[in-house]
Amino acid sequence: MDGNGRWAKSRGLPRTAGHKKGADSLRTVLNACRDAGVQYLTIYAFSSENWKRPSDEISDLMQLLNHYLEKELDTLHENNVRLRFIGDLGQLDKDIRASIGEAMEKTARNTAFNLTVALSYGSRQEIVRAVRRIVEKGVAAQNITEETLAEALDTADLPEPDLLIRTGGEQRLSNFLLWQAAYTEFYFTPVLWPDFNTKHFTEALQDYAKRERRYGTTGE
Ligand code: IPE
Ligand code: MG
Questions:
Q1: Which of 5, 58, 86, 217 is such that its CA lies 20 to 30 A from the CA of 21?
Q2: Which residues constitute the domain of residue 157?
């Protein structure tokens, strides 16, 4: 969900205004997913590297998240949405951790849609945490398979993503789902996240529908 800052700057507004508008785009995309029959959406809300931003922007973002959770949790729950959070959640403030825990617990038995929020998330850090877990369990080297690692990641109970959309014009992964995106189709758009709407989302899905996923085979 990239481009909030630029969206705000081009209007002479503080960056936070872009983040606020971005929250509206998230509501739009969530509805568009459900209309299109998409069952899993994982959003990159705050990266491990975002901790390097000025502290007032970080606290604005965390407040916005808390606010969003407070405001939307009941609706998400009524819509049978299961909420998950992935990332190094231990780095977050106690109150945010509490709201996150509550949201995950409350929605744990929901089945219609899976919304996962990557928060304080970095894929390299996630892989390191996974390796530590495996070592701590004392798994013998010869017993380590791709499944062992996949099951030790934060995304253990999620399918691998089919499509990854990055808004805001940058064409890179920025430490998002490095392991999980091995066969994911990428879609980059210059549209800034606060401007991203149902039409843009549909265009991305239509583009994805034209792709041929060969997974390394000749496709015959
Ligand atoms: C993405 O927008 C939102 C977060 C990283 C939380 P940016 O804040 O990165 O916006 P730009 O890239 O500066 O426009
Ligand atoms: Mg950015």
A1: 86
A2: 4-209
